[in-house]
Design brief:
- With about 180 residues, this protein is of the alpha+beta class.
- The chain has a single domain, classed as Nuclear Transport Factor 2, Chain: A (Roll), CATH 3.10.450.
- The protein has a four-stranded antiparallel beta sheet with strand order 1-2-3-4.
- Helix 1 runs antiparallel to helix 2.
- The relative contact order is 0.16.
């Protein structure tokens, strides 16, 4: 079982790498930024969905290995977690800084809109009925050395006044 899980993880990383290479060879237009944002957040959702089954790779390791993320994103993510761990060694940050919440839409995200003035992509839950308000999430991208990277998501490198609000109310529907 462990070998199967590891094999699936390797396949996932290889498939992501080919998507990343495709993105990196193209110019950073708005549609490419949307694609990068949606690819990143849905890959992260998939990782989080699988993480409960397999603890072989931590979120921090996944972030560090992601070729979709800027160095600034990775450094800020680590800084946030390190500071929270110093402040409260038992709890740490207490939520997921990328989702800016404790819960997340397991079905993933799709692009809702683009704030071209501020260079932000707003994504929302594919299953909008699961979360009140659609679980909006703000993602920013940056073009560095001709390559497009995600540079911000949730609380990471997104100014507080630009972050989406209301990512904490889960709607439970009767079954």
């Amino acid at each position: 079982m462990r070998k199967l899980t590891l094999t699936l993880l390797i396949i996932l990383l290889i498939s992501c790498r080919s998507k990343v290479n495709e993105l990196h060879t193209q110019k950073g237009s708005v549609s490419k930024a949307e694609t990068a944002a949606e690819l990143f957040i849905n890959d992260y959702v998939n990782f989080c969905n699988q993480q409960f089954e397999n603890k072989a790779l931590s979120k921090s390791d996944w972030i560090e290995q992601s070729e979709l993320l800027s160095t600034g994103f990775k450094e800020r993510y680590k800084s946030i977690l390190d500071s929270a761990k110093k402040e409260d060694p038992e709890l740490g940050y207490g939520s997921d800084p990328i989702f800016d919440a404790q819960d997340y839409p397991e079905s993933g995200f799709s692009v809702k809109s683009i704030d071209t003035v501020n260079g932000l992509i707003i994504v929302e839950a594919k299953d909008k009925n699961q979360f009140e308000g659609g679980f909006p999430l703000v993602i920013s991208t940056v073009l560095q050395d001709g390559k497009l990277f995600v540079d911000g998501a949730g609380v990471i490198n997104v100014p507080e006044n630009k972050r989406a609000k209301g990512n904490f109310l889960l709607i439970f529907e009767p079954s």
